[in-house]
Amino acid sequence: MHCFLNQHADSDLSFRAEEYSDISGHNNNIHCLAVAINQLATAMFTHQSKNIEQQLKEFLLLASSTLLQMGQNVDRVESKNRDSVYLLLHMIVEQSPFLSQDMLESCFPYVLLRNAYREVYKSFVVTLG
Q: Which of 46, 80, 83, 129 has its CA 20 to 30 A from that of 66?
């Protein structure tokens, strides 16, 4: 999961596509990845007759733990992508009918999300300017 998310959540491209006011999305389609993860998880856990909410809570705990460990890594590539991957986790929770912001905040510090939004937006403004 860690490598996959890093490859697809490049922080340079994770800002919203504001130049197209009629399109609500991101230049690298990261919003599609969040929807796909939720739909695949729901289908997979339904097929396996497992409790979807419980399985997604476990996913959230594992993903949060992995991302927090990634945050301690000083590797350049991982640091560059870290903010975007944080935002992807937030999008997954926002779009899930089984997860809530309270669940996310219980295992992932909100301050990291706030800082990630600020950094991605800042890189978007620098790119435009």
A: 46
Task: Round to whole Å and give the CA distance between 30 and 53.
Answer: 23
* Beta-carbon count within 10 A of 43 CB: 11
Mean pLDDT of 86-91: 92
| Residue 31, pLDDT score | 78
Residue with tokens 């600020």: 118
Q: How many CB atoms lie within 10 A of CB 67?
A: 20
Q: Tell me how many degrees the CA angle 92-9-43 measures, rounded to the nearest 5.
A: 35
Contacts for 66 with CB less than 8 Å, ≥ 6 apart: 1, 2
Give the whole-angstrom CA distance, residue 85 versus residue 6: 7
